[in-house]
Every structure is written in structure tokens, then in C-alpha cells.
Amino acid sequence: MSDSEDIIVENPYHPARLKPVRKGKKPPKLLAVVHQSGCTGCEVCIAGCPVDSIELVPGPEAGNPSFRQTVEIDLARCIGCQNCSQDCPWETITMYQSDDAFDAWAQETLDSELYISENQLKSLNDEHGVVAPAVEEETAEEENQEA
Ligand code: SF4
Ligand code: SF4
Q1: Distance in Å, CA 87 to ligand 2 centroid
Q2: Residues 38-55, buried b or exposed e (16+ Cβ, 10 A)?
Q3: Which amino acid residue places its CA nearest to atom 7 of ligand 2?
Q4: Residue 91 lies in a domain
Q5: Whose CA is nearest to atom 1 of ligand 2?
Q6: pTM for this one?
Q7: pLDDT for 35-70, tens place per residue?
Q8: Contact assessment for residue 59 and residue 67, using Cβ atoms and an 8 Å cutoff
């Protein structure tokens, strides 16, 4: 990710957020991460995912999004079945221990629409006319009143 210094958050506007959530409170033992530099965007992995948690990432040309497309995995929904890592003809999906998966995601993800920086989220909120609550300002005001 180019904005590696930013805090990364889930994109609440991604269509994947409308899909069924993963059952259970604990994450699975393993989670899948795409090494996007080796992904050809062939979509083979998408067909074999039992919970539809692999999403396309459009390529850089707005008029031709399938050119140089890649995929990414919704870590919030992956159940760790390993189908995709076994199916990928280019061996570019690796299973990680859940605790390590987000670090691996940060290392291996070049472009994501599922997980975005806080600055990107602010821009999307502006586009959608959403005003985020001013939590920090309220807290500061409360502290001033208590002092
Ligand atoms: S490990 Fe299974 S659930 Fe997770 S993305 Fe791959 S195919 Fe889907
Ligand atoms: S099967 Fe492998 S190369 Fe094809 S889209 Fe999935 S991760 Fe990319």
C-alpha cells in the first residue's frame, strides 16, 4: 500500500460490506493473503471461494478496469478454507496465521478497495455527504469543562 504510514480501516462503502458476515466470534486459525505483485487477475480463485470473500481490484485505467486487474481477500470474511491458495495457478495466495495476516496484507497489497486509509475514508464520507462525529473536539471540550 502506498499510504503505509496511514491508519487503515475497512471501507464501509464497499459492496462486500453487504455480504453475509463470518459466523463465530473468533477469526479462523488461518487467513488468506494475495501477493498482488504476482496476481494476473485470472479470477480462478474467486470461483472456488465458498463464502465469496475474494474481490476484484480494478486496474489503473478507468475505461478498461479489467486490464491489469488483481484481486484482494476480505480478511473480515475469509474462513481459512485454503481453497484459493490451492487453486491459484500462479501460487500467489498464501495462508497466514490469523495474527500475522494483517501484517502480511500490508506487505503484499499494492491496491485495495476493501481496506483504505483514513484520508481516503474522509474523502468518501465527503462524497456521500456523511459528517463524522467530532469525537476529539468533544473530548477536548469536556476536559476543559472539568478543569
Ligand atoms: S481461504 Fe477459503 S474462505 Fe478464505 S479467501 Fe480463500 S477460498 Fe475464500
Ligand atoms: S487465482 Fe491467483 S492469479 Fe488468479 S486472480 Fe486469484 S490470486 Fe490472482
Answers
A1: 8
A2: ebebeeebeeebebebbb
A3: 39
A4: yes
A5: 88
A6: 0.84
A7: 999 999 999 999 999 999 999 999 999 999 999 999
A8: yes
